[in-house]
């Protein structure tokens, strides 16, 4: 089912979600993109191959960040099902597994504090730890499973 009542159905867990915005919201989003550009780069460097990109989101309200998948990648649930398959093909798992994008909420206090810390010293261990904690927490809240749950728990 791709369409209902003349409206195209889209998954909110995939990238490219377009929400209606007025001029003030568009201007604020552009300002936020500029303001958080350095933080996005620092987070991408820390997360390296775990995410394809880190971007400022306009879909988040109360969460500091979330994981979304690429437009044609697997959803979190599909990835979980495919990992559970007994006769899965390991060669296809690599490229079919969801290309994850981390979206950050520019209005959240944690993200703002992280930006200030990263601007002060991007090589600070607390910045790296906080980025990893945010990433792993958003993996869980977005429906994915952790690669190493023991490290997250400790």
From TrEMBL:
<dbReference type="GO" id="GO:0140662">
    <property type="term" value="F:ATP-dependent protein folding chaperone"/>
</dbReference>
<dbReference type="InterPro" id="IPR037196">
    <property type="entry name" value="HSP90_C"/>
</dbReference>
<dbReference type="InterPro" id="IPR001404">
    <property type="entry name" value="Hsp90_fam"/>
</dbReference>
<dbReference type="GO" id="GO:0005524">
    <property type="term" value="F:ATP binding"/>
</dbReference>
<dbReference type="Pfam" id="PF00183">
    <property type="entry name" value="HSP90"/>
</dbReference>
<dbReference type="GO" id="GO:0016887">
    <property type="term" value="F:ATP hydrolysis activity"/>
</dbReference>
<protein>
    <recommendedName>
        <fullName>Heat shock protein 90</fullName>
    </recommendedName>
</protein>
<dbReference type="GO" id="GO:0051082">
    <property type="term" value="F:unfolded protein binding"/>
</dbReference>
<keyword id="KW-0547">Nucleotide-binding</keyword>
<comment type="similarity">
    <text>Belongs to the heat shock protein 90 family.</text>
</comment>
<keyword id="KW-0067">ATP-binding</keyword>
<keyword id="KW-0143">Chaperone</keyword>
């Amino acid at each position: 089912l791709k369409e209902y009542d003349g409206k195209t159905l889209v998954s909110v867990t995939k990238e490219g979600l377009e929400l209606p915005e007025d001029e003030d919201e568009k201007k604020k989003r552009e300002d936020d993109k500029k303001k958080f550009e350095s933080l996005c780069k620092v987070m991408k460097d820390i997360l390296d191959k775990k995410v394809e990109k880190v971007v400022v989101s306009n879909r988040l309200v109360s969460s500091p960040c979330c994981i979304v998948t690429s437009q044609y990648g697997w959803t979190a649930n599909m990835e979980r099902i495919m990992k559970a398959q007994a006769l899965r093909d390991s060669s296809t798992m690599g490229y079919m597994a969801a290309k994850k994008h981390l979206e950050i909420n520019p209005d959240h206090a944690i993200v703002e504090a992280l930006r200030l810390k990263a601007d002060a010293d991007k090589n600070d261990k607390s910045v790296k730890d906080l980025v990893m904690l945010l990433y792993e927490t958003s993996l869980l809240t977005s429906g994915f499973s952790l690669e190493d749950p023991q490290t997250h728990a400790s």
